[in-house]
Amino acid sequence: MLKALPLFVMYPSWIHPQIFPGVPVLGLIRWYGLMYIFAFVTAFIILKKELSEGMLNENGKTTTEDDIFSFIACGILFLLIGARVFSTLVYDTSGDYWKKPWLIFWPFDTVTKRFTGLLGMSYHGGFIGGLIGMIVWCRWHKRALWKWIDAMCVAIPAGYTFGRLGNFLNGELYGRITTVPWGVVFPRAEKFSASIDWVQDFAARCGMTLAEGERLVNLPRHPSQLYEALFEGVLLFAVLWLLRKRKPFDGFLGCCYAIGYGLVRFVVEYFREPDSDLGYRINYDGSTALYINTSLLNISTGQILCFLMIAGCLVLMLVLWLLDRRRISRAMHIAKAE
Known about the structure:
Elements: E1 9-10, H1 31-52, H2 65-91, H3 96-99, H4 123-141, H5 145-170, E2 184-185, E3 192-193, H6 197-205, E4 216-217, H7 224-243, H8 252-268, E5 280-282, E6 299-300, H9 301-337
Parallel strand pairs: 1-2
Antiparallel strand pairs: 3-4, 5-6
């Protein structure tokens, strides 16, 4: 009799958050940090391509690679600040960072004094911070704000892909338990008592054999980091890349990025497990079981922020369209007068 194949994937044991685990000094280098470098380089290459296509052309101004480099650097600096501040002051529920704000950028464990880096980054905080950084750079250099934001927003999803791959390599931000054959058993995920009937049933449906005497079971979960890398990264980038030469007005691509990301992230949140200390912001059925989705009306913090992002950018897109119509109308009146 053939033995049933397991319908899940074990998280590779050779993957560690550190690139060189156990090696002095080099052991401090983490995959997640390296992903930021990959994202920076990717954004730079894409912006160079857009520059060669004329997307950054401005009357009377020449744009160089140094301009692109400083624009990205300014954006990333503000992005990191925003992502860290948002993560510590919005998502952290301990209140420690409000009482001791200097710890927000303190890279050492306060108890062991061990170097940990800046653990915890928020996408939505990074979005706000990066936007502020782009505004500051464009105002400082007197550049066309929405033209540069459009160019950057085409590049962002490609770079963002590396960030979510970094989350996967860290074995963090995993999804809810699942029976899909590509479910992954993450080593640091919450374990469940093997004596519970539903746990035994769930394991059986996954083809998971429970060892005799096994007390805790680590069940397969959605690799939601990879979902985000694919849909919020690769596919969103492909859509924006195809639209880059067809935008009706400056700012259109920036709004499309934010709306597209918000929509996809809102859906992916149903597969991703919310932070245990936050739970649901809107809990329709009163469920406390965050490891499984019991209602589409249970809404997480990330989904609320995505909804605000979508709504805000729909309004912004309408405003920018009206301003563009007014600009065109004014130009036609001037042309007729001449």
